[in-house]
Write a structure and sequence with these properties.
The complex is a heterodimer. Chain A contains ten helices and seven strands. Chain A has helices at residues 2-22, 30-42, 84-96, 101-105, 116-126, 140-154, 164-168, 188-194, 210-220, 231-243; strands at residues 73-75, 80-82, 173-175, 178-180, 199-201, 206-208, 253-255. By secondary structure, chain B is mainly alpha-helical. In chain B, helix 7 packs across helix 10 (226-237). The chains are: A mainly alpha, B mainly alpha.
Chain lengths: 256, 245
């Protein structure tokens, strides 16, 4: 049906134009989250009344430039592989002495509910914008994470027998009119996808982190809700960053 | 419980390919997968990153899997273990899903046969013998993507969401491409009884027809009611349905 292809091309072009229009920092509301995150990072909190500036995100305490591009990674002090959000919770608990219950309750923003995590992730990820995704895979636990992530990506279940690869296992597919990136192996799709998180979601009027993306994917897969900051989400993130190596981060991005 | 003793399983499976000008979705072809040599990488997608260690694998799956099933299960527990028990049960793979997971849907011929034989037993045909309902109700079901999500209210009516993956009525331009186009489905098949029975089987339990098909098992997994399946069937097979216009 050639006329339909043309219609899709036209609407794709229009969407591209719209994306270009709103992707500059002056008009992407995600940068408001970046600013809030910057203030939060320097705010003294918790029973120790200290800021997060003593938090080591992998490159040394307080070093932010390029840290996000190398996460998830293994942290010796915790003896675990962590993504940014797990690491921030660890730093809040261990450095600030902060009870993170409230922070976790507000992990995703909503009407009348701000999210410290979304703001912090926006700020820290932005400090890696323009840098290449650099997956850390030397430590055995890092290798295990990526390998388990690959298994989870292909694992089917739920009332619809869906896995991540049901949608993302072949190139050039769509759900309705929504194009689906191919994520069953390395390539441009994986690079562009992983280089675009965190993102400002216009349809949700919120800055969303990759934790939210995976949570939403599992919702649509008809799986149970994955626990925030759990091992499976980090495993998937590790696997996806492995196949997205070299992708240039442009964050926060903006999506529909 | 009715079984299709009249059909050979393979004929049933190949039926999906004997029909008209429909391009089958690559992952959904009912052709017997190639047998895999012991150390071959035939089951791996060509774009897969090279394995870090040499493949001294005894089985094709071992060539793919770099971690044990127990390790993966532990991660699943750590990730979904706080969900209600009923929800956790939903992601316990049955024998068929275990096989599909193990081979990433590219199952060897003997396992494919075993899947079809196991799943065909789970197909229940309507007691009244009528496989076609109301196409207008079917059109609504095909368009409805609600149900089965942890965000859905308990009283949500499940939809078939056919349009997410398939082209159907030519008038609907918002269709996905994960499955083959179903436009003119009944018309292209001359509305034959055998094709109607085949399609009912496929919707009720896709695994009985195409082992490791991407398609949900709408009847067997109790996602759609018998009446809903009949209505979707009518949407595909009623000559008056927009699908056949």
């Amino acid at each position: 049906m050639p006329f339909r292809v043309h219609a899709e091309d036209a609407s794709e072009k229009e969407i591209e134009r719209y994306r270009a229009m709103i992707s500059d920092p002056m008009s992407n509301p995600g940068f408001l989250a970046v600013d809030r995150g910057e203030q939060l990072w320097a705010s003294k909190r918790g029973s120790n009344n200290v800021s997060l500036e003593g938090c080591d995100l992998g490159l040394g305490a307080g070093k932010l430039d390029g840290a996000f591009a190398q996460l998830p990674r293994y942290f010796k002090d915790a003896d675990r592989v962590m993504d940014l959000e797990q690491r921030l919770l660890w730093c809040m608990q261990n450095i600030q002495g902060l009870d993170t219950k409230d922070v976790v309750a507000r992990r995703f923003s909503g009407p009348g509910r701000v999210s410290d995590m979304e703001d912090l992730v926006a700020f820290i990820a932005n400090k890696s914008s323009g840098m290449a995704i650099e997956p850390q895979l030397k430590h055995p636990k890092e290798q295990e994470m990526a390998a388990v992530g690959e298994e989870l990506f292909h694992r089917r279940g739920g009332v619809m027998d869906f896995s991540c690869s049901t949608c993302h296992g072949a190139e050039g597919k769509r759900i309705r009119l929504q194009g689906l990136p191919y994520l069953a192996g390395p390539g441009k799709d994986a690079q562009l996808t992983m280089a675009s998180w965190p993102t400002y979601r216009v349809s949700q009027s919120a800055l969303r982190t990759f934790q939210h993306r995976i949570w939403d994917c599992y919702r649509q897969q008809r799986w149970p809700a994955p626990e925030y900051g759990s091992e499976g989400i980090t495993a998937l993130t590790s696997y996806l960053n492995k196949i997205a190596a070299g992708g240039e981060l442009v964050v926060p991005s903006i999506k529909r | 419980m009715t079984t299709l003793t009249k059909f050979s399983m393979l004929a049933l499976a190949l039926g999906a390919l004997t029909c008209g000008p429909i391009a089958a979705h690559a992952a959904d072809q009912a052709i017997p997968p190639k047998p895999v040599a012991a150390t071959s990488k035939a089951t791996e997608p060509t774009t897969k990153p090279a394995a870090t260690k040499a493949d001294a694998a005894a089985t094709p799956s071992a060539a793919i899997h770099k971690v044990s099933a127990e390790t993966v299960d532990a991660y699943v527990k750590a990730t979904f273990g706080k969900a209600p028990e009923e929800w956790q049960q939903r992601i316990v793979p049955d024998d068929t899903m275990k096989a599909c997971n193990k081979f990433r849907n590219e199952v060897p011929t003997d396992i494919a046969e075993a899947i079809m034989q196991r799943e065909i037993k789970k197909v229940v045909f309507p007691a009244d013998g009528k496989l076609l309902g109301d196409w207008k109700a079917g059109a609504k079901i095909a368009n409805n993507g609600r149900g089965g999500q942890f965000s859905d209210k308990a009283d949500t009516v499940n939809g078939g969401n056919c349009y997410a993956c398939h082209q159907m009525a030519p008038s609907e331009v918002s269709f996905g491409t994960l499955g083959p186009s179903l436009t003119h489905y009944g018309k292209d098949r001359n509305y034959t009884e055998a094709e109607i029975k085949q399609a009912y089987t496929k919707i009720y339990n896709s695994q009985a027809v195409v082992p490791c098909s991407n398609m949900p098992r709408f009847g067997t997994n109790n996602f759609l009611t018998e009446q809903q399946i009949k209505d979707v069937m009518a949407f595909l097979f009623d000559p008056e349905s927009p699908v056949n216009k």
